[in-house]
Amino acid sequence: MKKILYLNIIVIILTFVVNVLIFYSINFPLPFDFKGNFKDYGTEYILIILLIIGLLAYLIASVKIRQNNFKNKFLHIFLILNCLFLAFLVFEGSSEYIKKKKELILREMEYIKQAKKDIENDRVTYKFAGGLAVSDYNEETENNIDSIYKNYGVTYFNTGCIVDFMDLKAQKKYQETVKPYLIKRNGKNWELKMKSEIEKIRN
Predict the structure, then answer these.
(1) 98 in the same domain as 27
(2) Do 76 and 126 fall within a single domain?
(3) Three-state secondary structure of 77-121
(4) Helices (H), the chain
(5) Of the candidates 19, 82, 110, 117, which lies 20 to 30 Å from 35 by C-alpha distance?
(6) pLDDT in tens, the chain (203 residues)
């Protein structure tokens, strides 16, 4: 009986672990933050389902079949139902991960395609999430900064305050594609040179 009890405990622990993994599968490629995202794991729903499974196992075990011990029947039935629930969670999590992975690959391909097009037009665009775009400088200073960006063949586009981790991940392919081109066009350490020129104007 102890063996069945230990198996039930292991399966329950695995259920909570898989539930956390499902959260990250659904929100892939969200960075792992156990404490920060704990409230979003839906642990309370897993507890409710486990209680329902326990009740169902109790009702089934209450049915008299031969002379089997009630506790033994309950633990066996509880284990079977928990294994089925765990298998369902694994299937759902795997399906979501595969779906998100395919979506990421498609976005990466789109960014690579866009990068090649921007290279041809000599107009590389870097996207970033920076909240509301409120300038601290006057119009003349902003125009001078834009001229420097244009001189180096780059543009910076503020996408707003909403952070899309899928898009941020896919953008890395864009950056990887345009990097060699910008080095060839502007020379090594071109970003440092550009930032230095911008700082002179700002100051």
Answers:
(1) yes
(2) no
(3) HHHHHHHHHHHHHHHHHHHHHHHHHHHHHHHHHHHHHHHHHHHHC
(4) 2-26, 43-62, 70-120, 139-151, 165-186, 190-202
(5) 82
(6) 788 889 999 999 999 999 999 998 888 888 888 888 888 888 899 999 999 999 999 998 887 666 568 888 899 999 999 999 999 999 999 999 999 999 999 999 999 999 999 999 988 998 877 654 545 666 778 888 889 999 999 988 887 777 788 888 999 999 999 999 999 999 999 999 999 988 888 77
Please indicate, yes or no, if residue 117 is contained in any of the structural domains: no
Cβ–Cβ contacts within 10 Å for residue 49, how many? Answer: 15
Q: Is residue 112 part of a domain?
A: no
Is 35 a member of any domain? Answer: yes
Q: Does 98 share its domain with 157?
A: no
The pTM of the full predicted model, rounded to 2 decimals, is 0.73
C-alpha 6/C-alpha 14 separation (Å) is 12
Question: Structural domain of residue 53, as residue ranges?
Answer: 2-102
In a domain, 76, yes or no: yes
In this structure, the answer to whether residues 93 and 158 fall within a common structural domain is no
In angstroms, the CA 14 to CA 41 distance is: 14
- Pick the closest to residue 8 from 54, 45, 67 (CA basis): 54
Least Cα distance to 166 among 127, 133, 130 occurs for 127
Pair 6, 98 in one domain? yes
